[in-house]
Amino acid sequence: MTHALQQTTPPFRVPGRPVPHRGGGVRLLCAALAAAAVIAGGTACSGSGRDAGKGYAAARDEVFGPKGYRGLGPGTTKDAALAGGALRTEPMSAPTGCGLFGYADGSAPDPAVIAAEKAVTAKTGKTEGTGDTAGGSGAATDARKSAELARQLAESAAAVAEETKLIAESQKAFEAAGGAKFGTTGQLKQLVAPPKARTAEGIGAGTSEADLKKAYPDAEPVEGGYSRHLADAPGWEMVFATAAGKVTAVSLFTTTVKCT
Asked: What is the DSSP code (8-state) at residue 223?
C-alpha cells in the first residue's frame, strides 16, 4: 500500500518566518515563542539539532518539505527518530513488517485496535503451513484428507483477508493523522505530514487539486494522486494523495526501503 519548485508569492505567510517589525518585533516574537515552548515542553527559534526530531518547535507550525519535517526526513533511522522526541515511542499498529509511529503531539495508539491486530496476526501465524494431512490410504481417508485440506485453506484465506483489511485500515489512519513508517531495516520509508502542516507553497490536506497543480506544475499523476521526484534525495518522492478534487495527505515516500 503503498510513490526546482515553481511558485510565485505563497498564498500564505510561511509558518516560522518572522515578519519584520519596528522596535525589535522579531525579538519579541521569538521571546514569546520561547516562553510558550518552555511551558509546552519544547523549544522555539532554534534549529533542528544534531538528533533526528529533537528540539522541534512546539509553539509554531513547521513547514513540511523535501528535506522532511521536525528533523525527520530521508535517511532517518527509527532509533534516532524515537530518541529525538518528535514521535511517540509506541507503534500505531501491531502487524509485523513496517512500523508506524505517530507524532509526539498526536493521538495515542488505540489499545483495542492493537489488541485486535495482534489477535489476527496470531491467527494468521497458526494457519501458515496448512495443507498437511494425516497418513493413510483408501477412498474414505482420501476424502477426509480433502475435506480437512479444504477447511484449512478456507481458514488461512479468511485470516489473511482479515489481516490485509486491518493493515489497510491502519495505513489509512496513519496517513490521516501523520507520522513515520520505518522498514524492517529500521530506515525511514514514509513520512506523512499531520493534517495542519503545509508545504512552503501552502499545500496540505484540504487544498484543492487545482491549487496543487498550480503550485507544482511538475507533479506527475500517479494512482491515487500526484508525485514529485526529489532531486536532493535519490529514490524519494513527495506524494500528494487526492480524492474528490482535494489533497488528503502529503508525504515523503521511497520504494527502496522494504516492509518484508
From this structure: T
CA distance 43 to 56: 6
Does 54 map to a domain? no
Tally the residues of the chain: 260
169 has a pLDDT exceeding 70: yes
Using one digit for the tens of pLDDT, what is the confidence trace for 204-222?
A: 999 999 999 999 999 999 9
Q: If DSSP codes are grouped into helix, strand and coil, which group holds residue 48?
A: coil
Could you tell me the pTM of the whole model? 0.66
Question: Which residues form the domain of 96?
Answer: 61-254
Sign of CA dihedral 161, 191, 4, 230: negative
- Per residue in 226-250, pLDDT (tens digit) is 999 999 999 999 999 999 999 999 9
**What is the rounded CA–CA span in Å between residue 209 and residue 243?**
9
Among residues 195, 192, 218, 220, the alpha carbon closest in space to that of 207 is found at 195
| Per-residue cell: 118 | 495482534
Assigned domain for 208 exists: yes
Q: For residue 189, tell me if it sits in a domain.
A: yes
Distances from the Cα of 173 to the Cαs of 100, 153, 169, 231, in angstroms? 10, 30, 6, 29
The count of structural domains within the chain is: 1
DSSP state at residue 174:
H
Select from 217, 214, 194, 209 the least CA-distant residue to 240: 209
Task: Find where cell 474528490 sits.
Answer: 244
CA distance linking residue 108 with residue 110, whole number of Å: 6
**Cα(32)–Cα(184) distance, integer angstroms:** 42
How many angstroms separate the CA atoms of 255 and 190, rounded?
9
Instruction: Give CA–CA dist 249/50, Å, rounded.
Output: 28
- What lies within 8 Å, CB to CB, of 72 at 6+ separation is 52, 53, 81, 84, 86, 87, 180, 188, 191
